[in-house]
Amino acid sequence: xxxxxxxxxxxxxxxxxxxxxxxxxxxxxxxxxxxxxxxxxxxxxxxxxxxxxxxxxxxxxxxxxxxxxxxxxxxxxxxxxxxxxxxxxxxxxxxxxxxxxxxxxxxxxxxxxxxxxxxxxxxxxxxxxxxxxxxxxxxxxxxxxxxxxxxxxxxxxxxxxxxxxxxxxxxxxxxxxxxxxxxxxxxxxxxxxxxx
Length: 196
Prior knowledge:
Mean pLDDT: 76
Structural class: mainly beta
Radius of gyration: 18 Å
Shape: globular
Strand order of the largest sheet: 8-12-9-11-10
Number of helices: 2
Strand content: 35-45%
Low-confidence stretches: 91-99, 118-125, 191-196
């Protein structure tokens, strides 16, 4: 999993231990020509197997992680369960903001946050890809499908560990989704560049 935390890219990944089990870690990627940040943090490193880390950020330095752990406690009986790690402490540095006239402002009083709206690099784009994180308690297959039908877009991928989906959205659709009560946050994913 890779996200933009407001100042740089952060990744979550699996690492195999000498005993063959997996742990999950978090770190930032360095900028070209700079030394690596060396800020690796363990998301979860227990005797159990942890895998499939997914990061979510608010775009201003706060990063959370979800992951799968084979829960060996007697109450769970050795089944795979999803866990959410609290906010991962990260070092941040200020980022110069660039305004983007293509960002359509929502019309509701309390819109869901739009994470990292100024990270797009390519002008003249048609649509961008976003990760839409739903509030916990919503079934992503049901609510995601309802939102897609209501706002006329296609979902590219559903996440099952956390209630989220990926979709290509234009500015007005992003603004409309930010006003949906089921939406927790919308995260910019990447840009689709129009063909030449």
